[in-house]
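Feature request, filed as a ticket because there's no other form

It would be nice if the structure record came with a short human-readable summary line next to the tokens. Right now we just get the raw output. Example of a typical job, pasted below so the devs can see what we mean:
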Amino acid sequence: MKEVRDPLTGHMTTGHEWNGITELNTRVPRAIWLFILVTHVWALIIWILLPAWPVGTTYTKGVLGLDQRQQVNKEIAAAERAFAERDRQIRERSVPEIMTDVSLMNYVMDTASAIFGDNCAVCHGTAASGGPGYPSLIDTDWLWGGDTDQIMETLRVGINSQHPDTRHAQMPAFGRLGVLSGRDVRLLVPYVKSLSGSDIPAEVRAAGEDLFSRNCSSCHGADGMGRLQAGAPNLTDDVWLYGGGDNDIFYTIWDGRQGWMPAWQARLSDEDRKMLVIYLQELADGERP
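Raw output as currently delivered:
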């Protein structure tokens, strides 16, 4: 192929032509050569300053002696010391003291939010408001009490779990086991609802009250306000774990109920459970999202 000088630019051509378009044989721009030179010089400097080349079973350490692995290990150790110090404060300080420490509370809320999401939200919901068969954790209706120590113990041993100290709760299946007839259960339903303030005829109240006294009061109390030590819920506050409709209450009495919650002692530390309690109390107060 014959090289020809392009009359317009003055550059020689490569001799290649496509459909009348001729390729120019232009020089590489100086900026490109400068870029290549700078990058090579920079690479040489980095090879000298930093760990770079493998040498048998080791490598060149570089003039600066930097080691990213050691740096990461130092940062991890520093973070672990900070976490250990926060955990020590949570372990040794009372809940009121923790709640007055803004910095510590920020740590508690961020950490407990993640703990709750990983372990509790699947049953109690992301907002801890519960659902059918799963209690709300942000109201005042607690089966074994809602103060810090009582909630901590419930978290530690669980409910009807395999923990040797677990809390036990079992409502008998009065209808299915033949203790009460269908008619008896239907009489009990309006009476149980009336404990929350609904009006019922006097004769229905009398019949339901007699059945309640003989079958239910030993756990729920003669006034229906429940017994914390037995895990028997209050029936006077219009809070219903399995629904408060006629059919819901009928099948609760007929088939019985048995809640279950795992014991968290083996999975969550004392500090984790304490942070969870504070987190739930804050959610209940509505002070934080």
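Something like this underneath would help us a lot:
The two ends are 77 Å apart (CA to CA).
DSSP finds eleven helices and four strands in the chain.
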